[in-house]
Amino acid sequence: MRRPRRVAVIGGGIAGLAAAVRLRDRAPAGTEITVYERSGALGGKLRTGELAGQAVEFGAESFLMRDPAGGESAAVALVRRLGLADRIVHPTVGQAALAVGGHLRPVPGGTLVGVPGDLATVTTVATPAAAADRDDGRPLLGPDEDVAVGALVRARFGDEVVDRLVDPMLGGVYAGRADDLSLVTTMPALARTARVEHTLVGAVRAAQAAAPRTPGAPVFGTLAGGLGTLVEAAARESGATIRRDATVRELHPTPTGWRLTVGPTRDPEHVDVEAVVLAVPARPAARLLAGSAPELADTVGALDYASVALVTLALPEPELPELSGFLVPGTEGLLIKASTFFTTKWGHLRRPDGLALVRASVGRYREEEQLQRPDEDLAATVHRELSAVLGTPLPAPVAGHVQRWGGALPQYTPGHTDRVASVRAALRASHPTLALAGAGYDGVGIPVCVRSGETAADEIITALGGSGT
Question: Given strand 220-223, what is the order of strands in its sheet?
Fold first, then answer.
């Protein structure tokens, strides 16, 4: 009698858990799935905690409702699969602001991650160099070309549009700089149209037309009770054996699959499996690949990451504007780069006692030294800077929390997508029963990570000989 096939998922973040659920749903019946998570907590950057007696996100706070083609996002599909659709809630306040010149100014509408398709809409925060966006008789990008977002937008719209709009919006997502980040990876829709259109205005409009939004349809969602419920449900529904505090230190190919070395050096455990989903950040992934594919490991391990800290304050009856939050351009000289007014943005979090939860994100790429401050110093600085931006002293917090995410956000330099594609192609040729998944390869955001994990699981199922459905 043939023993059940065994698949290891290394990494218990949302990409790894989504892979485990997909394996349970589509792999042959009886497949044994084990998730190895080096820390004591599942979910990766999804972490729901408690502050002042209320559930609050100490990591990612929401997910996109639609995918780039206009359909249901992979995150929403997973939520439905896990029976949590009735918990989806949407922001009750969607307008955000930019802190520019000491004032809060509404984020202009109709942009693509800050890149405008109508230059007249952004004049409240920046003065575009409109004359530079001329038709030179050829597409903005060549067929296989990738550039930094900042380089393209500066050349076409000038510095202010980048510094005051694009950079803070990208910084809010990646904690990186527009001048470093890949257009193809961070704005794939714009990259596609830039290979056809001759002006940046035309490329933005074409990208927007290719993915029209339904008027009034919510863009973002989260789960009542916190995104931790998504993590718990995915772990449960996967039917996988969950190994917490289980560091996989080595990974070597065998004639029948892979051998994992798990646990401390003094007392290692060796586990043989037929296939592996490697759903960990790039650097630990590179260490595990070093023994079997050293050249690929070097390419994977070259990806750099930014560190951030999220400072959440519980404030008694503060005077807050009716905004979801605000973004801060790096040129403003503040420590905080973004802030979210949780109890304003999310109606289900509002409290009858008037206690407000406000979160600020600190830390930009290559400015990690700012995060070396003690928690108390970070919290005090955030409180002071929030008061300055809002133009009114905020009350002293009754509670606070500092969540540090070291090496949390990948910095995708131009060519990233092609490098990942080449690594995956080489793995399929040499080691088809190993698949990469996660933000280090496919992009940040819950839907992208879910889709990445599911795609990796599908590749493993194919490599092992097909589906059980």
Answer: 63-64, 220-223, 88-89
Contact 409, 444 (CB under 8 A): yes
Task: Return the exposure string of 267-284: e unless at least 16 CB atoms fall within 10 Å of the residue's CB, then b.
Answer: eeeebebbbbbbbbbbbb
Q: Which amino acid is at 242?
A: I
CATH superfamily of 49-73+84-93+304-411: Protoporphyrinogen oxidase, mitochondrial; domain 2 (3.90.660.20)
Is the pLDDT at 469 greater than 60? The verdict is: no
What pLDDT, in 10s, does the model give residues 232-286?
Answer: 999 999 999 999 999 999 999 999 999 999 999 898 999 999 999 999 999 999 9
Q: Which residues pair with 273 in a beta bridge?
A: 258
Radius of gyration of the chain (CA): 23
Burial code of 118-141, b = ≥16 C-beta within 10 A, e = fewer? ebeebeebbebbeeebeeeeebbb
Q: Is 245 exposed, middle or buried (0-12, 13-18, 19+ CB in 10 A)?
A: exposed
Alpha-carbon distance of 333 to 244, in angstroms, equals 41
Burial of 335 (0-12, 13-18, 19+ CB in 10 A): buried
Alpha helices in 247-392 (DSSP H): 282-289, 294-301, 342-345, 375-390
> Which two three-digit tokens encode residue 81?
């699969």
pLDDT in tens, 107-128: 999 899 999 999 999 999 999 9
Q: Which residues, other chains included, contact 353 with Cβ-Cβ below 8 Å and sequence gap of 6+?
A: none
Query: What would the two tokens of residue 344 be?
Result: 């304003």
Quote the CATH superfamily of domain 6-46+226-303+413-463.
FAD/NAD(P)-binding domain (3.50.50.60)
pLDDT (mean) for 294-318: 97
Please check whether residue 42 is in contact with residue 53, taking contact to mean a CB–CB distance below 8 angstroms: no
